[in-house]
Amino acid sequence: MAKYIFVTGGVTSSLGKGIFAASLAKLLQSRGLRVTIQKFDPYINVDPGTLNPYEHGECYVTEDGAETDLDLGHYERFLNTPTSQANNVTTGRVYQTVINKEREGAYLGKTVQVIPHITDEIKRRMMLLGESGKYDIVITEIGGTVGDIEALPYIETVRQIRWELEEHETLVCHLTLIPYLKSAKELKTKPTQHSVKELQTIGLRPDILVCRTEYPMTDEMRKKLALFCNVDKNSVIQMLDVDTIYAVPLEVQKEQLDDTVLRKLHLPNKKVADLAQWKKFLSKLRNPKGEVRIGLVGKYIELQDAYKSIHESFIHAGAANNLKVVVEPIHSEHINEKNVKQKLGHLHGILVAPGFGNRGIEGKITAIKYVRENNIPFFGICLGMQCAVIEYARNVLGMKTAHSTEMSPKTKFPVIDMMEEQKTIKKKGGTMRLGAYKCTLQKGSLAAKLYHNQNISERHRHRFEFNNLYLEQFEKSGMKATGRNPESGLVEVVEIPANKHFIGVQYHPELKSTVDNPHPLFVGLVKAAKEYKLSLVKPASKAK
Ligand code: GLN
Fold it and tell me: Ligand 1: which of 361, 387, 406, 505 to mutate, most ligand atoms within 8 Å of CB?
């Protein structure tokens, strides 16, 4: 029987509920427990797949093809275990299920209402992973902030679950902000007290109070918070601002969060935490032996969250190489033939990002031409790979107007074209080629060398693909398809073997990089960037 931990947030959004949930999960995992994390989002979209990255940051795709909240990325990166469709639920999905059931006649004769029908459906989904027998602990993060109208049915459901289960089977962790008032030189507990009060009026009493703070809290403050928020004194957990999110598990461990949780859930407290590998990673991250600069060419660069998994993958790959990776975001809309050298010339590697639509596309293609001609390490992901194909067609194969039919439906040279199975699809939500597919890598290719494997599986999110009608022409002139889907023949990886490091992939490797398993393609790019940097200072003949 699994136990359930609920994480709510108060005072303000963006406090790091996802990072807290992932950190707690990591600690419990390190104590030998099987843990999973799920997120309930109070918005009406059925999933975030149709949301603009400016609205919601990156859309994270699971193995089973769910388009989900980016917090699931943190869960996977921390725990090194995959999440699934069941790990992210939105209000839209809950209502969709209930309304479909109503149409089928499941509630015949009854008025369908938020309570009990919506809350029952939320409950069913909250308990689902726990009932699978695969987990000892299910952590459920409730999106939004306590007090939001949209979040009320979720809080009510948690209240009911707590009422139904034994006291030691559930826990509520409430994450709040302890603001520092500069003029008064003081940390303030009042907003936290108010937010706990708010939580209590809607029926929940937190067991553990997690306090996000810029400065350490005094003993006095902890006592005060415990007293006025109705929690034990050792259940006031400080979550201090730190230099990296990956330090948070250790920070909350110092606060004995894991011991407190185990005690409250009546779980054995024998196994000591095994965080050796985690600490090793942190130490490498904090003590780099050098630095490389990598350009991230994309069109959502104003917002870090839009490329969250890419940024995190570079952090993992940097540590694996004992290097600091400085990721320089470059707006693809601002790149043109005239300024491309000035924009990219100082970089040791370039990643061209995934994306949709026409905006910024020519800048991406111009950037790729520059890195290809100057033999700068290149890595293209999804649209980034497609741009590499278009660039090659235009500038090497002489197909001056080559394009993807996504941007130019009538192009004379559709080197990237819509996948056959996509052509009849009209609906936008959840209809791309999504989730994990197999790929076979060519022996001796750069990809096969980096993966140390020829049979891989990676996650996808796209409608367009390399047009195999042109494959022969590309291969003859030097751009090779080195990774293909074994069933459909779809091109998954392209390379230019004549270049030192030029690779584009149709899938999203960034979704599978974790602290324990940094992704080989990111590790490879950082290594290539390091070698490229060295080659700039040493005479070419001596460059390794
Ligand atoms: N827009 C492209 C497609 O749908 C690439 C998608 C992506 O970069 N995720 O195929």
Answer: 406
